[in-house]
Design a protein that fits this description.
Helices cover about 40% and strands about 20% of the residues. The protein has about 450 residues and is α/β, with parallel strands linked by helices. It has two domains: about 1-10 and about 360-435, Arc Repressor Mutant, subunit A; about 10-320, TIM Barrel. The strands form five sheets. The chain has a nine-stranded mixed sheet, sandwiched between helices. Strands 14-15-16 form a three-stranded antiparallel sheet, with helices on one face. The protein is globular and about 55 Å long. The termini are close together. Bound molecules: iron/sulfur cluster.
């Protein structure tokens, strides 16, 4: 508990390095296009696609996502039109023989789209891309307002994985966060997903929400375990009212749990999940022992991208839809964050880039280092050095020398050949990664707390 208190500081989640706050609007657009061209010289590198579907009917007051709140159903068809056009603008820039190994539908609420629009989007994607036979195709599901037809439509499109927003099963918490989701609704969604052949079902919970107590959250975790999900993510509620003003209501009503209570929720959740046989993959992710994430964690082949942990390595990411992020070896691009700006760019026939970042060679090296810290049990200097073509211990001697306090606190163990992250260190991976982040002192610092 003392440790969690000590290391509960604002920090990035390192779904990328450098992190998104470093992306800039004045990035060299011609250089970004050159990066796309370089990324598509041959067909060898697989593709990972992300499609952002921003609509939600009502706002959950804790929400930190990029959403468009609307009950106007025509928005779905209009938006799919824009996505189809964006695919048409982007596809000619890509090598036609590249294979898609990963596709993720995120939001917002992907199931805001009526089944017919889901099918139309699927046809557009299939007509533009070749999918690997074992492609991992996942969708974020909101059990509220879900129908069997939605589940079937995403399954027919090829989805084999789903993650469900549960957050908290306690009715009092659900009222306080403006997200009413009775347990039978979640049970029904899971039953539909299993019956229609989704291979993996993951549940998302959030701790630190208003009205939650250590005991109430323990019940939520137990009820979630009762659904026997393949994976669970236990996210920390990110209180950032300066970015998400709707969150101010929790302060006005004085409903947020104390730091003490929040720490208790986290440790209790980790204990309950471990006792139920789940493997702690890293940070906030847990998986069944046979799950491919757990196996990759064991074998040191885990990776991390904007969707979190994954087993699919080395793919370039192409994002579609407002606010989505794309990534090649040497660049990041983020689409326009406002729907009207995104639509205007698409209608003008251009890539809807709002900001971006070009990585230097040093950025790329540090990215490897940071991602290894986020994904692997052991950072092996020789192995990493062979990949990067440098002497890791000598090049990053200053940063490595700062690990002493983390070692003293039992988060890692250093030796001459590298360092190993301990089970205790799993919760603190981003604290360790921060020691190698060259940008922490530069630019805006609007990160949520690590716990
Ligand atoms: S459903 Fe998800 S994306 Fe939509 S408002 Fe709620 S938390 Fe945000």
């Amino acid at each position: 508990m003392e440790l969690i208190r000590k290391y509960n500081v604002p920090g990035p989640r390192y779904t990328s390095y450098p992190t998104a706050p470093q992306f800039a609007a004045d990035v060299d657009r011609a250089a970004l296009l050159a990066e796309i061209a370089a990324d598509n010289r041959d067909a060898a590198t697989p593709l990972s696609l992300y499609v952002h579907l921003p609509f939600c009917e009502t706002l959950c007051w804790y929400c930190g996502c990029n959403t468009v709140i609307t009950q106007r159903r025509e928005s779905a068809a209009e938006y799919v039109d824009l996505l189809v056009s964006e695919l048409a603008i982007t596809a000619p820039l890509l090598h036609p023989q590249r294979q898609v190994t990963q596709l993720h539908f995120g939001g917002g609420t992907p199931t805001f789209l009526p089944p017919a629009e889901i099918a139309r989007l699927g046809r557009a994607l299939r007509s533009r891309f070749t999918f690997a036979p074992d492609a991992e195709i996942s969708v974020e599901i909101d059990p509220r307002r879900l129908t069997l037809e939605h589940v079937q439509a995403y399954r027919e499109l090829g989805c084999n994985r789903a993650s469900l927003g549960v957050q908290d099963t306690n009715p009092e918490v659900q009222l306080a966060i403006h997200r009413w989701q009775p347990l039978p609704q979640t049970a029904q969604a899971i039953a539909w997903l299993r019956a229609t052949g989704y291979q993996s079902v993951s549940l998302d919970l959030i701790y630190g929400l208003p009205v939650q107590t250590e005991e109430s959250f323990a019940r939520t975790v137990e009820e979630a375990i009762g659904f026997q999900p393949d994976r669970l993510a236990i996210f920390s509620y990110a209180h950032v009212p300066w970015i998400k003003p709707a969150q101010k209501i929790f302060e006005q009503r004085e409903q947020l749990p104390s730091t003490e209570a929040k720490l208790g929720m986290l440790t209790t959740a980790a204990r309950l999940l471990t006792a139920a046989g789940y493997v702690h993959i890293g940070m906030d992710h847990f998986a069944r022992p046979g799950d491919e994430l757990a196996v990759a964690h064991d074998q040191g082949t885990l990776h991390r991208n904007f969707q979190g942990y994954t087993t699919r390595a080395g793919a370039s990411l192409y994002g579609f839809g407002m606010t989505s992020i794309s990534q090649t070896d040497g660049s990041f691009r983020q689409n326009e964050k406002e729907l009207e700006h995104y639509a205007a760019a698409i209608r003008a026939g251009r890539l809807p880039v709002e900001r971006g970042f070009l990585l230097s060679v040093e950025d790329q090296r540090r990215r490897s280092l940071v991602m290894d810290v986020m994904c692997r049990r052991r950072i092996d200097y020789a192995q990493l050095g062979a990949r990067l073509g440098l002497d890791v211990a000598a090049t990053y001697a200053t940063e490595l020398a700062t690990l002493g306090d983390l070692e003293a606190d039992g988060l890692l163990v250093r030796d001459a050949g590298g360092f190993t992250i301990t089970p205790r260190g799993e919760l603190f991976r981003r604290i360790i990664a921060m020691r190698f982040d060259a940008y922490l002192d530069r630019g805006p610092r609007q990160f949520s707390r690590t716990v």
